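User: Is it possible to get a 3D structure for a protein together with its bound compound? The compound here is pyrrole-2-carboxylate. I've pasted both below.
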Amino acid sequence: MTARYSALSLLSRGLRGRNWPLVWRRHELAPTYDAVIIGAGVHGLAAAYYLAVNHGIRNVAVLDRSYLGGGGSGRNTAIIRSNYLTPEGVRFYDRSVKLYETLASELNFNVMFSQRGHLTLAHNDSSLRTMRWRAEVNKLQGVDSEVIGPDEIKSLVPYMDVSAQTRYPILGALYHPPGGIIRHDAVNWGYARGADARGVQIHEYTEVVGIDVEEGRVRGVQTSRGHISTPVVLNCTAGWSSLVSRLAGVRLPISTHPLQAAVTEPVKVFLNTVVVSGTLHVYVSQTDRGELVFGASTDPYPSYSTRGSLEFTEELAGHVLELMPSIAALRVLRQWAGLCDMTPDFSPIMGETPVEGFLVDVGWGTYGFKAGPVAGEAMAELVATGKTPDLISSFPLSRFADGRLVGEKGAAAVGH
Ligand code: PYC
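Assistant: Yes, that's possible. Here is the predicted structure of the complex:
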């Protein structure tokens, strides 16, 4: 990577607190774009980046009604993995892991991808069977996953209680070495910077309030800052994807649920893998700063609220302590929620819709952040060529009418 600033200029800019060049520029809205992307999260920004880099399409606007990365892309637990249940899912998420592996050098921006390994614990025979199944499907697709026993788990996570005296003794785990964590803001900012440098316009605080459709095809969008003509609109929103699609007259089989998470004060690093327990409804990892990041199941009712609840933190803490009793003295620093657009089969909806020119990259449930690069790459290809790439051909909206579901509930981090 090339350094953009000397240490002295960094220090002087930091002390003065001004004169930082903008990482992405501000623009007036143009009257026309070749494509408009709704949602300046990882999916929208990656799609814009790959449109410019892979296909030379740069007259693109990315619109967001709030700030860049302020939706699901800034409200997740930044877990990356490809240990899914279906061959279609494994192939798809594996491509994302591969893109993440080279993203820092591609973007010349440190995204802090740490492939520290990912453990999904099994506390009963039926989940052990699912882990074995996933391991086989993963291996057949060339993805590194295997089932390991309690001794190996203990050597990977010395603080874990793998004794037989717990409420739900640990029988084994699906171990997925390429899995890990990433710095989610850095991914958003890196894609934004890369897209901006190639001429893409990013418009924060620009809400789409209408989508113009005439004779079955998209003509433009109405925004809080004016009208834009465009032949292509790509819906890359999370949390609001069904509402945005409705603006084009497209109905999606999605219900939106909050997913809460929390982070503790930082402590010396002691947890070097991502740990997931479906039975205890919890996942935990430790950031490079030393904070423990926890998450659990989605809230059990549809809502657009991103507020945290005490009930969630209490339950979460109780469950984490069943796994690692020795961290009882750690204090929770803060908590948040992101919005998850849940589909009936827990797989995303990507591709064309009955409205020509209106494309969707939505319905990510609890899997959205990890898929940002591959979804962006594939959607950019679809926009540029008009052909649906093989990698996403199993995830069309039409599968719900055709009954060709891609069931990925069994690969969810926890039960939802
Ligand atoms: O699927 O790995 C996952 C995940 C973690 C948090 C939410 N989803």
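The CA atoms of residues 99 and 373 lie 6 Å apart. The chain has a mean pLDDT of 96.
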